[in-house]
Design a protein that fits this description.
This protein has about 200 residues and is of the alpha+beta class. About 45% of the residues lie in helices and about 20% in strands.
Amino acid sequence: MTDTIDIKAADQFTAYVTNHQMTVLHDDGLHRHLRFGTPGAVGWFEIVTWPGSLTIHGDLGGTHTFSRLTDMFEFFRDRPINPGYWAEKTPDYGISLKEYSEDVLREQVVDAIRDLDDADEDTGQAAKRILAAIDDGDACDEDGARELLSEGEDAGLWSDSWEWDLTYWSQPYLRACHAIVWAIRQYDAAKSPAMPVVG
């Protein structure tokens, strides 16, 4: 579930940093200040670390501080992106890291329709109508999504949809997660010039 969102965030980030270069503003043990950007272009981000913490901010959207290990580069280094676990290490956990997702709505609607035991012609038509409405942009915000879910309940497609969580990690937060891992690879490569930078 939500693979589409994760792939979109990864692709957006890869395109964003195509020509980015690292500038080391400070590098003293666990005290680091790194800036990444394309010379002469808009779009940059910075990573600052101190014992026990790492902050990322800039044009990715938002500022996020993570706390877990004494050396936060060690926490993020050579790991797959794990937004749920990483969110637990920031004071923003459960507050501003998620947003309404039309992709999550679509996945839940498709799953609910697939699980129908006895769909007759009327429920089949209702299901097609709701999927078409999602594709047409009628659920671009959560209010529109809830209206469609209510319509689906009235048609007998599902029940208790008010309980459905229609949120997922926000694109800015996912980009920040990708940026941290990517930035640490650039930093490590600069420290060991013989080591190739991957991705």
